[in-house]
Write a structure and sequence with these properties.
By secondary structure, this protein is of the alpha/beta class. The chain has a single domain, classed as Metallo-dependent phosphatases (Purple Acid Phosphatase, chain A, domain 2, 4-Layer Sandwich). The protein is built from 4 helices and 15 strands. A 7-stranded mixed beta sheet has the order 3-2-1-12-13-14-15. A 6-stranded mixed beta sheet has the order 4-5-8-9-11-10, with no helix packed on it. A hairpin with an 8-residue loop joins strand 13 and strand 14. Helix 2 packs across helix 3. The two termini are about 25 Å apart.
């Protein structure tokens, strides 16, 4: 791997049907704007197309109610980029069926190849619901043994490392500690891309770097660019967060792997 630019979209929470009925009756937090979400999703597609990304990783909660029609509609919007598209399911997406996102991707004609380029691959944490949208667990173990010496991006709706605040999120991934343990045991670098918290956060433990991404539905709404580079055996990650609403200066963040630890560069 020399250089790779990927778009990242998280927590769209689209509410859609063919009659375009008002979604104002849907229960939501005060800073969620369901009626404006489709316009922000279109804006994200335009921004990512302008940035010339090589592909897009979606970090779950595409459909607020997990219905197939809305999942298809959201993925069709993202497919306008005409780039490879990968999607990790969120807790809302699996409320009705555990394989709803995978089926929607197949209907849209997206392939299952997760080798992004030589020396870099993507793994998806698939989910199943334990208690409607509140609690989930992973459907199957990550195939860590087949990853070899590659740098691996793990797309997981739920963060795997504890949030920097140390708060215990009641609707975290039920077996997240087990999933994280397999990543921490790797001798090679791993980058976890996650959503769910609707915030821009970062944390690391050893050779595992976790980036948490803000939501399309939230305020401030955003999509992101993640650029991965390798030079002389040193891995570098740059995140640019792009506002989709009112002007908001997120700034650029950069991390570099130094031996066994990810260091944030000023």
């Amino acid at each position: 791997m020399s250089s790779l630019r990927l778009g990242v979209v998280s927590d769209v929470h689209l509410v859609f049907d063919r009659t375009n009925r008002s979604s104002s009756r849907v229960s939501k937090p005060d800073d969620w704007d369901f009626p404006g979400t489709e316009a922000r999703l279109r804006a994200a597609v335009e921004r990512l197309e302008h940035e010339g990304v090589a592909g897009v990783v979606v970090l779950g909660d595409l459909a607020h109610h997990g219905d197939a029609e809305t999942l298809d509609h959201a993925l069709a919007s993202l497919a306008r980029l005409q780039r490879p598209l990968w999607a990790a399911p969120g807790n809302h997406d699996v409320a009705l069926r555990a394989d709803a996102v995978a089926d929607s991707l197949r209907r849209a004609g997206h392939h299952d190849a997760h080798e992004l380029q030589a020396g870099c691959r993507l793994a998806i944490v698939e989910l199943e619901s334990v208690d409607w949208i509140l609690r989930c667990r992973s459907r199957s173990a990550l195939a860590v043994g087949s990853w070899g010496a590659d740098l691996v991006l793990v797309a997981s709706h739920f963060p795997l490392l504890p949030p920097p605040s140390g708060d215990d999120d009641p609707d975290h991934l039920g077996d997240g500690e087990d999933v994280l343990r397999t990543l921490l045991e790797r001798a090679e670098p791993t980058i976890v891309l996650s959503g769910h918290l609707h915030q821009r956060l970062a944390s690391s433990s050893g050779r595992v770097l976790q980036l948490v991404f803000p939501a399309v539905v939230g305020d401030p709404a955003a999509c992101s660019i993640v650029e991965l580079t390798e030079r002389d055996g040193r891995h570098r990650v740059v995140r640019n967060t792009l506002s989709l609403g009112a002007p908001f200066a997120f700034g650029q963040e950069t991390w570099e792997l130094d031996d066994d630890n990810w260091l944030e560069l000023s």
